[in-house]
Amino acid sequence: MEETLDFKRVLPIFVIVLVEMLGLTIIIPLLPLYAGSFGANEVVIGMLAAAFPLMQLIGGPLLGSLSDRYGRKPILLFSQFGTLTGFLLLGFANSLIMLFIARVIDGLSGGNIVAAQAAITDSTTEKTRAQGLGLIGAAFGLGFTIGPAIAGIALVLTDNNYHVPAFIAACFSIISIILTFTWLEETLPADKRGTQNQKRGLQYLTKLKQAMSYPFVGTLLVLMFMQQLVFYGFENLMPIFTLDRLGLNAAGNTVLFVFIGIILIMVQGKYIGPWSRRFGERKLIIGGLGMLAFGMIITSVTPPQAVPWYDRDAILEELSQQSHRQATPVDLQLNIPDGNERGAFGIAWILIALVPTTVGASLLMPSINSLITQQVKREETGSILGISSALVSLANAIAPMLGGTLFLVAGSTIPFMLGGFILAGLCVFALNNLRTKTTQVTTG
What we know:
CATH class: Mainly Alpha
CATH topology: Growth Hormone, Chain: A
Shape: globular
Helix content: over 70%
């Protein structure tokens, strides 16, 4: 009889991550334009996007190790309080500096996903782990669908006031804290928590070196880092890319994020479990890299055609009004189309390109993490996922700064085109280096 995922056991984790993701995805489509409204150019926007993962690089592995030692629940609660503080600061922001402070605080306490991944791993078996980790992605997908929709509605009702969605995100963060405190049961029993292992886990650079010494795990970590290096830049530059090519404002970008979220839900909520059992994680990783590469290359050549409803004066007014609290006005640095050429071809193009891009991205992280967790002892799961998260955070810290610089210096095509070719190379790398059959490490 085929082993199936125990949904009743993982449901609380899924719901809590979903609510947390609702808060996060409400602000994702807004943040680049929010920064742009305070006079930031593409490089500064990249630095803002990098602030959160750079701080998470410090906090993630530490919180992952602490979750191995003290349990998942208290660490998850701590990180949620940090997220709440960050959202509140975003809501009250009246300068670019406040935006940076908000992201730094949220990043330092950003162990949400690490703790959730560890809790999922505690609650699954080797055969159901990819599906369980995929549920986190499905929660992210639901968040991408509902969160941007909420943001879009809030923008319409408040005449494009970027502060309001941040306060709504804070409300969802409060809900996630309440749910974690009252509903979530600890998934890591006291007798399974690490002791001496934690001291090594806290020294995450040493732990990374140790993990990389195993060829198969090292390959998976390299793939995790490189695919995220490319995709996170894509994710964070998308709002200013669509502003540059299509003349989409914040509300228009929320529609694209809803579209992305629907695809994420379909792949990670329904298909990744059966696909992982049928094809195995190796083939999902290779296929995901190939589709993501193709999608990014196609996206990079999106025709520069403003959407039919484009209004340049309205875009300028929307961006200018966000900084009204400042003592002196700011000069907008982002490229805003003149609107001489309009039509539906450009928006149709990017919608089609987003399908392989999103499907590919949906497959990669849960499949890679599933293979990684099959190679480590249970009591080390949180530490290793913390290392995986640290590499993701490092990639996330580098990607937007590099992408923003390329965007400013070389134009909007080069960052996505170059990323697509890098991913194509990673696909070949995976074909040549993911051939060894994995073996589950037993608890010692």
